[in-house]
Amino acid sequence: MTALRDIAWAKLNLTLEVLGRRADGFHELNSLVAFAGLGDTVELEPQDGEFRDALDLRIEGPFAAALDGANLIIEAAETAKAQSPGLALGRFRLFKILPVAAGLGGGSADAAAALRLIARANSGGLSEAAASGLAERLGSDVTVCLTSEPAIITGRGETVTPVRGFPSCGVVLANPGLPLATVDVYGALNAPALSAPPRPSAPPDFAGDFDKLLEYATPRGNDLEPAAMRLVPEVGTVLAALRTLDGARLARLSGSGPTCFALFASPREALRAATALAQCQPDWWIAASTLGDPKSAIPKSAIPKSKG
């Protein structure tokens, strides 16, 4: 059968406020999330008849070797099948271009893409509500990756509130080539216990204005940045390099890192800056893309230098 294809868009935490450690061990977050116009490619070749329960995963690409052991794509498929035994599965293929343990939500985005593909392969067999419920069970970031649209995420990340008027802009991503486990960063953060339930607030409306996005994001920061730099000091080197790029308006760690990003007013500026950075840092993974709605990324994502 013809393979279905989807993109697991890279997730960026433009802000990440850690409000405290909850009684259940998770951390209460408030984070502005957006998606870049690049990501892993996930394919599903559906099976029918006696092979409709078949499930397989082949991993290729520059970062395939970094994936070892359990994979969220398989877990997503097995969880969906357990909830709805009539679902047909099939053979998955993952082309991995995003670094692993990089703060880009790669595994969560892969799982979300797998759920979207299963829904397409089983017309009417996996509703949007059912997919959302499965996403929350699979991991904190899978829910927001399911729609891959700019949003404020709260709770442990599973509560998603879309934001309005997110402007299209350019972004440069840079990773020093060192993995950094999320659990280690939160452990190093040593956040205090949550003192009181957070107060809900209205999500921002950026009205398509890049400067309004900067006004919102600049004072909020990423609370995980100091802990990440203690574990991987190279994060500070990456941030310093991004801040010197011509046209860079905001440079910050994404998620728990070690990938960092810089925002630019246009994709053209971002591509020019990424090309210059790749010449200075040939051993880093560097990519330029758009930020906003990844499905309408213009131009398509560009990777001046990808070390894998």
Give an account of the 3D structure:
Strand 6 (151-155) and strand 7 form a beta hairpin. This protein folds into two domains: 4-159, Ribosomal Protein S5, domain 2; 164-305, Alpha-Beta Plaits (2-Layer Sandwich). Mean pLDDT is 91; it is low at 297-306. It has helices at residues 72-83, 106-121, 128-138, 142-147, 182-189, 210-217, 225-231, 234-243, 267-280; strands spanning 4-13, 17-21, 27-46, 55-60, 90-95, 151-155, 159-162, 169-175, 250-253, 260-264, 285-292, 302-305. Helix 1 (72-83) runs parallel beside helix 2 and helix 5 (182-189) crosses helix 7 (225-231). Helices cover 30% and strands 27% of the residues. It has 308 residues and is α+β, with helices and mostly antiparallel strands. The chain is built from nine helices and twelve strands. Strands 1, 2, 3, 4, 5, 6, 7, 8, 9, 10, 11 and 12 form a twelve-stranded mixed sheet that branches.
